[in-house]
Amino acid sequence: MKITIVKKPFGRVRKLQEVTYELSTKPETLRELLRELVAIEVARYNEPDTVLSFLTEEMKQAAAIKFGPIAERNKVTVEDSIAVMELAFEDGLFKVLQGQHVYTSLNEPIVSNDLPWTFMKLTFLTGR
């Protein structure tokens, strides 16, 4: 099953972009959808970057350069990431929308599979 998610790319780019994800199963609830998306992103994060690992090894031999946190980042687990995602949703740190529908619970059934999804990270502003 394919779904489309509207998201803001990293960096200073302000234009939203659509990204398509291929899911292995058809999720029935928001929790199932978010768990599968987290698993996809964790797998992508944990993939070794072959060019970076090659450069790192070559540069270590020559003692020319260090990549530090980029090359030596820790692997993350799907279970921990799912727990963080669920806690963040319950704490209201992000909202999930599909078309005009706003999801308020992780156990809420999915409204439609045809409409694009939007994930909004909420930022709390402080003032004097």
Task: Please specify the SSE layout and strand pairing.
Elements lengths: L1 E6 L9 E6 L7 H17 L3 H13 L15 H13 L3 E5 L2 E3 L13 E5 L7
Parallel strand pairs: 1-5
Antiparallel strand pairs: 1-2, 3-4, 3-5
Walk me through this protein's architecture:
The chain is an alpha+beta fold and 128 residues long. It is built from 3 helices and 5 strands. A hairpin with a 2-residue loop joins strand 3 and strand 4. Helix 1 (30-46) packs across helix 3. The termini are far apart.
Short summary of the structure?
This protein is of the alpha+beta class and 128 residues long. 34% of the residues lie in helices and 20% in strands.
Total strand segments: 5
Average pLDDT value?
81
Biggest β-sheet, characterized?
Answer: 5 strands, mixed
What integer value in Å does the Rg equal?
18 Å
Low-confidence stretches: none
Count of DSSP-assigned helices: 3
Spell out the helices and strands N to C.
EEHHHEEE
What attributes does this structure have?
about 130 residues; alpha+beta; five-stranded mixed beta sheet; 3 helices; about 35% helix; about 20% strand; globular
